Amino acid sequence: MQRVACADGATAGTARSLDGVLQGAPWRLDVPAAWNGELVMLAHGYEPKGVPRPTPMPANDATAALTGAGFAVAQSAYASQGWAVADAIADTERLRRHVLAQLPGLRHTWLLGLSMGGAVTLATLERTPQGYDGGVALCGANLPGEVLANDLLTTLVAFDYFFRQPDGLPRGGLLAAETAALPQATLYQGIATALQGDADAAAVLATRLQVQPDALAGTVSLDALVLHELIERAGGMPVGNVTVRYSGFGDDAAFNAGVARVRAAPAAQRYVRGPLALTGALQRPVALQFNTGDATIVPHMQAVYPQLATRAGATARLRQLPAAGEGHCGFSDAQVLQALQTVRAVVVPVAVHSEDAALR
Questions:
Q1: What is the pLDDT of residues 306-354, one digit of tens each?
Q2: pLDDT of residue 349
């Protein structure tokens, strides 16, 4: 299943766009007329379950800047929606292999991940780096699955501690199975209404979670969605907090005495420790960059992967770029290209990349 926007056998000077489906994952490839002989595999971020998917697959917002700078761009929509990191890793690699026949003369391949795609980028460059020269994780959820799940669990049990049986939400709280069935808008509104009812508790929660109060409802609702998706994918609760001693929630003694305690299901725990694992053991150069004021990937999350890389002895392959842009994934086209150039400059000889005026 493939559609080609130009005649077969197109040569340099002719832009090409192709799309299709590979093992249930829609994909597209865009090759500019002035192709520079390099490919960017673009790993997109989180897509909520049930969001309609247009046909053919539309290009990610970053595509035009990349093709305008001479890069071919291939991207998979992934075979499943939601927190689809494991699918995304496999689907992106399958697509990379598939498009090679369309790119004779390919010289370099880069992996660029956005948000959830950051975890895809890092996992790929740790485990199967052979097809890549380097990567970029922008606004990335660069967290091992177990670390992410623990963060999400903390959010949910803290909300349930401060806001007991709020109107519009399941009586069992955000951890209840019924929460997973709520429409996203309903979940958000129930959380927002509860937060408005106790400004002091909301302020404590916002400070502890490192988000601004006006972004708190969105953060809590997203965390609930993702944790319940992880529970579904893992076949049970992937983490537990029976022995966790929490701090930063005001009266910590009262919080630890009253917060809900849950146990991890061993099989589910193996899922986050296996397919969703990150070790920091990079095999290719990678640049990380975040936005300022990001309520989704907050400061303590941003520090996790550099610490892993340090422990793995891979700091020489990691470049932490200064924060740029606002919000979550609020990068300009120029910032995306500059982040890619930071990694590209490590690999591509100066005599080659200095000729690329679009990347200067």
A1: 999 999 999 999 999 999 999 999 999 999 999 999 999 999 875 444 4
A2: 72
The pTM is what? 0.91
Three-state SS string over the chain comes to CEEECCCCCCCCCCCEEEEEEECCEEEEEEECCCCCCEEEEEECCCECCCCCCCCCCCCCCCHHHHHHCCCEEEEECCCCCECCHHHHHHHHHHHHHHHHHHCCCCCEEEEEEECHHHHHHHHHHHHCHHHCCEEEEECCCCCCHHHHHHHHHHHHHHHHHHCCCCCCCCCCCCCCHHHHCCCHHHHHHHHHHHHHHCHHHHHHHHHHHCCCHHHHHHHHHHHHHHHHHHHHHHCCCCCCCCCCCCCCCCCHHHHHHHCCCCCCCHHHHHHHHCCCCCCCCCCCCEEEECCECCCCCCHHHHCHHHHHHHHCCCHHHEEECCCCCECCCCCCHHHHHHHHHHHHHHHCCHHHHCCCHHHC
Question: Are the CB atoms for 330 and 299 separated by under 8 Å?
Answer: no
pLDDT digits (tens, 9 = 90+) for 16-28: 999 999 999 999 9
